């Protein structure tokens, strides 16, 4: 048996094990929910979920009153790994979108187009921009300021030094912002 065949068989075995573990976690989660909140079991519905080891088919349990939802699954999410975070990390490291699409297809076993990665990156950068321009409260009990210098890849410029400033404020009620 050659190494490629062995690698494929091993990846498939790991994917099946991940599917079995996730299915067990779903069952235990529903049982715990029903013990606390009461109610009765009401079958399953199918769901595909992309993991780091490939796509797995799950039977998501439900209850009769439709109050239960698995704790570790986000509604309508189809990926256990946040592709947006991985895409932004690759983008920040200076990896092209086409190369990032290839890397993600190797890591997740699913092909993402460079257009999809571009849309994900734009969405995350838009959220970061909204965070940066939000209004801050007028009063702070303490303010901690710091900064560091990093090497960053800029298209057309190569690697340049950028300063990253960190500001941490403690409100009078003790909340960190």
From TrEMBL:
Pfam families linked to this entry = Transposase_mut
The residue range of the signal peptide is none
GO BP terms, alphabetized: DNA transposition
- Statement: the UniProt record of this protein carries the keyword DNA-binding: yes
Question: Does the keyword field hold Hydrolase?
Answer: no
| Keywords from the named record | DNA recombination, DNA-binding, Transposable element, Transposition
Q: Which GO terms describe its molecular function?
A: DNA binding; transposase activity
Report the family membership.
Belongs to the transposase mutator family.
* Functional description taken from the UniProt entry: Required for the transposition of the insertion element.
- Spell out the protein name for this chain: Mutator family transposase
